[in-house]
Amino acid sequence: MFRWLNGPGAVFRHPLPGSTNYLNAYDRDGRLIRAIDRSLGKKEQKMEEDEDEIDEDEEVDEDGEIIPKIKQKSKKPRIKETKDEPPLPKENAEDLVPFPMNRQFRSQHVLSEELKDAIYEMVMVDGKSVRNVSATLGVEMNRVGAVVRLKAVEKEWEKKGNPIAFSYAKAILGMLPSTPYVPNDPITHESINDLPVHRATQIQIFHPVSESRHFTRRDAGKVFDRELKPAEDRVPHTELVQLQKWRHEGKLPKERIQLQREKDAKDAQSKKVLERMRKEKAAREIKKVETERSEFRFQDIRIESVRLTGRNKEGVGARYGIPPQDRKKGQVKIPTSVG
Amino acid sequence: MRKRFHGLKRIKLRQSWNKYNLFNFSRVEPSPKNTERTFFQQKWTAKALTRAYHGETVREKQWTRTFRRTIRSVVPMDYKMLAEKDGSEQAEGRGSGLEPPPDQKTKPFPRTPYLNMTYAPMERRLDTAIFRALFASSTRQARQFVVHGYVRVNGQKMIYPGYQLNPGDMFQVEPDRVLYATGAPKDKFERRAGRKIRAKYSKKASTSEAPDETEPRTPKSDPSPESISTDKTPKGTLQSLLGQAKELLATPSTSLTAKRKQDLRAFQRTVKRTLGSPKAMTATSLDSQLAEIVARMNVAPQTRPASPSSSTTEVPELSTPELQAEAATLDSTQLRTLRDALKDARENPVDPSKPYATPWRPREWMSAFAFVPRYLEVHPRVCAAVYLRHPVARPGLAEVPTPYGTETNTLAHNWYLRRR
């Protein structure tokens, strides 16, 4: 073991400056594969292969083996300068595999500090919507929300004077692949329109239709499940689809913006109406009787609301009549949700 | 704890950054030899191997109850395609879409590695998530942090390592613990320095009986630079910084590079020079003091290559003529080193009372294990992370970090389908 650790494995002792340092990037003798390739004179070829690595959707063939992608658009030179050596080429998809046996798992890019700052600025200072920021920067909506939350924690710590782990953060970001922030031409960090696979669509159905019928995505969804909506209504960014539809119809940019505004206003209006209806319904269900001393509120209850065990929190008497079981054997005390 | 956690004879891969574990990762065979073995035997081995990595602290019965045969997956959609086509083109021709001409054939869509997601429910556990967020060097250590009360979920203390994170949960680990877990350990001399400090404080506490005379400084609540800056004058803080630099140079640690030593010496010199001019001590806190120095440094490199007239315009911005003269004596590279050294010394101070080697540096063998899966959003500066969603499989990619390939994972998944 120590022969390996002091021999070929010694490269893993310290991080490779300005790059990731995973097992799969080295051969059996502990030599960096992409450095060897370059020294063999494949430099130009390799550069092309490495070029478009930052995007999320790398090409993978049927068995999950990674195919190097062909250059799509020229970006900034992605060569890393080291101090005394010639620059090291950027790592390709193979170099980002931390477990050599599992090619289907890759170390994916994380957000760089500049990109996080930009997200926080856009949301909190410029007041842009999360949806908008997500679409412009190519970052998932829940990730945008999380970044804003985490950045807010950092600002609070700064204000309080809590020590912030700068050196740790710098070291960690140096070991991970990260998406840089290019203000005018943002690099897509991840795919933002992920369609979750619905449970109902995981079966095969033989459904004959007549040849003359115009059988669309919407119809196919209904075959699987009556309630199942088509993909364009189920992806996170439905507004991108709508905008593209208008563009396809030949609407001018001005018209599209106008239509988008109208649609937003309509959505907001319908949301308000729904909220009002909910409140009205709640008011109708509770009967109030005013007396001298207090106001009595009567509400119809359903006996089934206690559910099968008779202990549901929604049920009648959940706070009064049900004895606690926390001292019984085999009760799990771990909370299921916090905060 | 078992006797051989990182065994060298029968290889068990573990969730840890140990060097023995790295050695095992480097030499483990791609697939066990499954010829002449019954299906049951193959499944048993696969289960044993994968369970040694995924949640070995979780009892088997508990895991079999948590296991779910349903696997989450997503398909990335192209919004342009969704807008322009309604899906009917897939039924054209003889019913399965038109055959494209041979030169325009698209690449086959990569398969979704569903069965690599067998242990997805394990990734929901709090201790595993802490390890995945690079806040602990192993899941066992993460578990210990949770049990010892260093972890908060959504701002509340959480002491259960088995807590199942919900999408949107934010977990935070005490930064000092994270630095301890991920930092290099102290060497012999640093440990000794730490012991000395502890002895000094304990002696002080025993001799001075008056409780409210001084703030009780236990070795754990260490004198961080912030606490120094609050109770001392700026001159004092600068002197302590200088002392730290000296101490760092004096330690015989081999990790100090020549470059860093040079930086520190340059830093020492400048601090001395600043201390020499009494009028410079107008600033009220360490930060403003440092800001002043940095501002001075920012001014100087601009004036130096430019004409002397511009340097005369800069004079009123500096507080005293002595400072101006002082800035003029330094050249731009010196100033840069001074700025870097000051920043570094402030962010990453030498502090023998810490349980890790200071100034902090990452522990050895860590970089081969460093990755952050996409279902977490980690912010290392505050040692906090958000569990965004459950891990999913997508074409060509499974988000559960497992060292084993599809074959082993499939066999393990089959084991937990209960019909053996």
UniProtKB/TrEMBL annotation, chain A:
Coiled-coil zones: none
GO molecular function: structural constituent of ribosome
Acidic residues bias: start-end ranges: 47-65
GO terms under biological process: mitochondrial translation
Top-rank lineage group of the source organism: Eukaryota
Disordered, as annotated region: 39-95, 314-339
InterPro entries noted in UniProt: Ribosomal_mS45
Biased composition range(s): Basic and acidic residues: 79-93
Record GO cellular component, one term: mitochondrial small ribosomal subunit
PANTHER family: 37S RIBOSOMAL PROTEIN S35, MITOCHONDRIAL, SMALL RIBOSOMAL SUBUNIT PROTEIN MS45
Name of the protein in its database record: Eukaryotic mitochondrial regulator protein-domain-containing protein
Organism: Alectoria fallacina
UniProtKB/TrEMBL annotation, chain B:
Keyword Ribonucleoprotein attributed: yes
Pfam families assigned to the protein according to its UniProt record, in alphabetical order: S4
SMART domains (UniProt xref): S4
Ranges of Polar residues composition bias in the record: 224-236, 301-314
A GO term for molecular function: structural constituent of ribosome
The RNA-binding S4 domain, residue ranges: 124-184
Keyword field: Mitochondrion, Ribonucleoprotein, Ribosomal protein, RNA-binding, rRNA-binding
Residue ranges with Basic residues bias: 193-203
UniProt-listed InterPro entries: Ribosomal_uS4, Ribosomal_uS4_CS, S4_RNA-bd, S4_RNA-bd_sf
Coiled coil: none
GO-annotated biological processes: ribosomal small subunit biogenesis
Chief location bin: mitochondrion
Similarity-based family: Belongs to the universal ribosomal protein uS4 family.
Function: Component of the mitochondrial ribosome (mitoribosome), a dedicated translation machinery responsible for the synthesis of mitochondrial genome-encoded proteins, including at least some of the essential transmembrane subunits of the mitochondrial respiratory chain. The mitoribosomes are attached to the mitochondrial inner membrane and translation products are cotranslationally integrated into the membrane.
Cited PANTHER family: 30S 40S RIBOSOMAL PROTEIN (PTHR11831), SMALL RIBOSOMAL SUBUNIT PROTEIN US4M (PTHR11831:SF4)
Record-given protein name: Small ribosomal subunit protein uS4m
Organism whose genome encodes this protein: Alectoria fallacina
Gene: NAM9
